[in-house]
Structures are given as structure tokens and as C-alpha cells.
Request: fold
Amino acid sequence: MRFSHPTGLDNAPDDVKLAVDLIYLLENHEIDPDTALSAIEMVKRDLLAKQNASS
Reply:
């Protein structure tokens, strides 16, 4: 799922665009910050494990 970015983000790096998308998604769905941070930590651990496995 990709969101429309304001023109200021058109040339932004992909990680910045993704961060903006994630912030929008969390705010739009009124996700509790503690819940979001916990989920982000889980995602980070999963991505790091995949990154290490492919190294």
C-alpha cells in the first residue's frame, strides 16, 4: 500500500517515505503509542534476523 506524498517528499529517500507512510497509518488508525512501539520492536527483531540469515 502506497500513500500519496506531498510534493516535498517526492524526491525523499525511500526510508523517509516509508517512515511517513507508517506514521500516517498509525495516526490514522489511532494506534496507542505504546502498542505501536512494541510492534515496531517486534518488526525490527524480525527484520534483523532475516538480514543476519541472508548475510
The first helix runs from residue 14 to 28.
